[in-house]
Amino acid sequence: TDIWSLGVTMLEMFMGDVTWNFGCSAPLTLENYCNLYNGDKGIPIPGEVIQVLQRCFRENPRERWNSMIDLADVLCQIYEDLTGKCYPRARYPFPVNHTKNSNHFQRKTENLVEWDDPREWLKKALIFAGKDPHGLERDLPQWEGSRKAKALIDLEIFEEVEVLFHSNPHNNAKTLKNLALLHRQQAIVHEYIRDLPGSLTLYDKAIRFLESMPNKHLTSEVMLQLVDIKKLKATILGRIRDFASAIKLFDECLDIMSRLKQKETLPKFTEQLITLLTNKAIVCSSMGIFRDAITLFNQALNNCINLREKSENSKIPYYLSVIYLNRAGCYWRLGNIDAAETDMKQCIGMLEPLLTGSKNNGKVHFLAKAYMNVAVLKLTLQSDSEADTYLDKAYAMIAHEIQIYGRTELRSILAEIIGLKGNLLKKSGKFQESQDFYAKSLDILETLVHLESQTEYSDRLVILYMNMGNLLNRMGKKYEAIEFFDKSTTLIHRIVDDENRPELKTNLGMVLANKARTYAELGNWHHACQQARKAKEILEFEIERTERTDLKILVAMVAEIIKGNLPD
User: Fold this and answer.
1) Which conformational region is residue 213 in: left (phi greater than 0), alpha (psi within -120 to 50 degrees), or beta?
2) 114 phi and psi, to 5 degrees?
3) Lower CB count within 10 Å: N or C terminus of the chain?
4) For residues 154 and 117, what is the distance between their CA atoms, to the nearest angstrom?
5) Of the spans 61-75, 306-320, 491-505, 545-559, which averages the highest pLDDT?
């Protein structure tokens, strides 16, 4: 269906309009347009492209293009044949293996939050409703297709479960608890398919059901389940950058945990506390409150160590690796490179033994992130060769997961790795290669943010626009550089205004500083000083707020511009 939809989009581009109501009529529309085209509207479609579109619209999906990349290869070749020029835009950055393992589907999100097999829930619901669960497999939808298709089938079964639970005429505590835990399952699947608003709505329902239970049924176990659901909701709020709501919810969870601790020690109590402290710390880090984040990471780390001393828990190495990975980022932002490097070594030491052979369990992207962060540290320490090695490792791992297992949710990490490779090439003076890598990274991030509405990656797109602007400036393409700086500032203003995210002011200050320098180099001192003053005000405030000493270099640069001096 994706191939068909792309063909419909291409046909609309040639026609300049949509003249049909249903996508299924696209083949007939294509035939009529080609036969009746008279130049009044739209543009003629080259014969080679007509053949491409006809294959997109084959009735049997198996007769269409095998993949988007096959289709892109043919279109690029047509472009080169018709124009006599090489296709100018960067291609997808890794060789493609078309043999995807469609059976490699695990019921867990990118952050390793798992949901249950809905068939087990259906059996439970049938018994709860007084019905015979025997033979239910015959009536279930066939579990096949892509990873997303399989997740949607799970949701379909969960909806049947919900109907059965609601069929109980007694709104008793057991029904409320079953519905709450069911909505938790559904919310996780919605997160998996990137429907974050749907996920939040379901978490809200789950919270309401648990909080409406009579006090006598609010056992320590139920309260711990309530904490878990609120924590998962808060984590998503952090992802969509609603930081104030996320922190408020985390604090509610910690308050419940403090009261639970006074009653009894539950088997899952410490584990829940570790993830709660870690997730809150990650949100604080995203807000630029690095010292508070480190304090929370330290508390989570101490709980991990205590748990390890008391029991053999297979999740402890994973918990520790996440803490070390994210705490390293905080240390790096605060300029403590040695502490950051130590944490990254600890993280890799925890993860590498977990991911050998068949032990992947969906965690490979955490190790790739660790390699990526080590590469950033090595760049800071001028160890470019080591940085390149770590980036290649990270790249190979993520590319393999996307190619072989179809894990398209990892595209954002791939874009980040490719962007860092562009940084390294820029630093080495290989400007054209750097531009190619930035363009590849932009292709992915712009698709995620602008076409798929995954706005949680807007921050990365802002930085990438700025990096591309800096590169073009160094290549002497100063007006093109300003265009990219403008893209970055436009996106920042939209996010700050629409999503109330003042923490992005740091990025705004950085972009304005670089834009001021470019104007100064063009000799446009009026615009240079105007941008420099804005940048100085923002950056000085952000240094005080975040304690980021690395921003002082930019403050010194814009101060020179304001004095009328061209910075070195």
Assistant:
1) beta
2) -100, 150
3) C
4) 8
5) 545-559
